[in-house]
Amino acid sequence: MTTLSAKQRLVVAIAVLASFVTFLDGTVVNVALPAISRELGGGISTQQWVVDAYLITLSALILLAGSLSDAFGRVAVMRAGLIAFGVASVAVAAAPDPLVLIIARAGQGAAGALLVPSSLALITATMRGPLQARAIGVWTAFTTAAQLVGPLLGGLFVDFLSWRLVFLINVLPIAVTLFLLWRLPDAAHKRTTRVDWTSGILCAVGLGAVVFALIEQPNWGWSAPAIWVPGVGGAVLLLIFLVRQRTATHPLLPLGLFQLRNFAWGNAATLFIYAALSLNGFVISVYLQQGAGLTATAAGLASLPITLMMIVLSSKAGTWAAKHGPRILMTIGPLLMAIGAALLITVDHDFNYWWQVLPSMIVLGLGLALTVAPLTAAVLGAVEEEHGGIASAINNAISRVAGLLVVAMLSTIVGGRLDLAGFHSAAWFTAALMAAGGVISWIGIRTPRTETVTPTEPTGPTTPIPG
Fold first, then answer.
1. Are residues 231 and 262 in the same domain?
2. Cα within 13 Å of Cα(416), Cβ side
3. Does residue 370 contact residue 317 with C-beta atoms inside 8 Å?
4. Highest mean pLDDT, choosing among 50-54, 122-126, 274-278, 280-284
5. Lowest CB count within 10 Å: 19, 98, 351, 426, which one?
């Protein structure tokens, strides 16, 4: 079996650490939300904004960041993102009130947008085929583990230290990654892509306005001008953004990529699966503390079985996908996760973790481990190396937008309160989203033959790309 070279192992280590920072910070906050609310004030709306401020800038700027990665080089963009993320993390930890905290969280998201596309693009630029699938499997195991171990680390910090220190956990991985990047300087980078800043602004403002309307509408109502004006205006800006991508000389979102079957259907599956994962992570972390009365540490430990399953099986799932194709794993995995989410309806007022939550975590972990690496490999394996940054950015943007929108809709999903009835509603909603992801994968995903593409940079309407 072909093994990774020394340079390839270094690349995987850098990719894992750089992504670890953003994934860890995106989830570690969930268990800190009740403590933040107690100290700084605010109810469910403030909790939503603490999560979504990060996701808004991460989602809105990740396409722009993918274009920057292709234009200026992966290492340079990653280095800038790491430094900015460290500065924003210190600002979050020192925030004196909710407004400053939310602004600093938005800064973290903007910096994080520079990291994820560049990290995966490093892998796709260094290896292809089965070796790439294995590397993505390793990347998936550790970065997804970061998402899942985040609540545990956050819980320990909240219970024994301070919620503020939760946001400084990433200082060490940032320092280590910067050191490793020093050992991997950018090769001479030929700039072939120009950055469409106008499209970036349209996407960022449009998405932010829509999310504002979704989060605040339970407080104001859809008839209030403060809600429907940004809601409609944001939707119009997003529509203009999509129209511009068909005519821009250097589009942020090359629509021709979606003519590739696995790329298009894989991103459709991503939308549903990651919406479910974001909803599930938010609801479990908050409800187990505020509803079931667990400590922050205990709430974080609740998801530990998922972490263990991911670490053990993700790399193997990447290898299986390379050997047998991604379709079957991308179907079975989400359907298993749907079953796991549905098991959470057994949670009752007489709470018992071992019988009501643990079975769900085991099934969710198995399904997630079977899904993520094949999904990532199927999507990114469909494009040529030089466009790996934008392909990774598109897939990550879709996953973040999915989480962003579902958290923004939380009040509607749970009926305004995250009590036991709201928790059950969220469990059913999560299960439905997961099942939809599995069905989409079965319908759309195929075992690739030579499905690669070099997207054109159209001066007019996007032309079909053979695949």
1. no
2. 4
3. yes
4. 274-278
5. 351
Average pLDDT, the chain: 79
Taking 80 as the threshold, does the pLDDT of residue 427 lie above it?
A: yes
d(CA 275, CA 260): 23
Distance (Å, whole) CA 150 – CA 443: 34
Evaluate whether residue 209 is within a structural domain: yes
**Does 456 map to a domain?**
no
For residue range 225-246, list pLDDT tens digits in order: 888 898 899 899 989 988 888 8
Please list, in sequence order, all residues whose beta carbon lies within 8 angstroms of the beta carbon of residue 29, skipping any fewer than 6 positions away: 50, 51, 54, 105, 154, 166, 167
Cβ(441)–Cβ(431) under 8 Å? no
| Interior/surface letters 73-86, b for 16+ CB within 10 angstroms, e for the rest | bbbbbbbbbbebbb
What is each CA distance from 262 to 24, 176, 382, in whole angstroms?
Answer: 28, 35, 7
| Residue 458 domain flag | no
Question: Are 253 and 228 contained in the same domain?
Answer: no
Cβ-proximal residues to 428 (8 Å cutoff; 6+ apart), any chain: 341, 342, 345
Q: Are residues 256 and 232 in the same domain?
A: no
Say if residue 191's pLDDT is above 60: no
Cβ atoms < 10 Å from Cβ of 451: 17
Distance in angstroms (rounded) separating the CA atoms of residues 393 and 251: 13
The structure tokens 């973790």 sit at 353
CA-to-CA distance for 186 and 138, rounded, in angstroms?
23
Tokens representing residue 458 in the block: 């159209």
Domain of residue 396 covers 7-186+248-444
Query: Do 311 and 389 belong together in one domain?
Result: yes
- DSSP label at residue 186: P
Residues 227, 338, single domain; the answer is no
- What does the block give as tokens for 438? 């599995």
Residue 269 contacts residue 441 (beta carbons within 8 Å): yes
Q: pLDDT tens digits, residue range 77-87?
A: 888 888 898 89
> Are 108 and 35 found together in one domain?
yes
Q: Do residues 276 and 422 share a domain?
A: yes
Query: Who's near 454: CB < 8 A, 6+ residues apart?
Result: 384, 386, 387, 465
Distance from C-alpha of 306 to C-alpha of 274, rounded to nearest angstrom: 15
Between CA 442 and CA 419 the distance in angstroms is: 35
134-182 pLDDT tens trace: 677 677 667 666 666 677 777 888 888 888 888 887 788 888 888 888 8
* Counted domains in the chain: 2
Q: Are residues 216 and 252 both part of a single domain?
A: no
How far is Cα 29 from Cα 379, in angstroms, rounded to an integer? 28
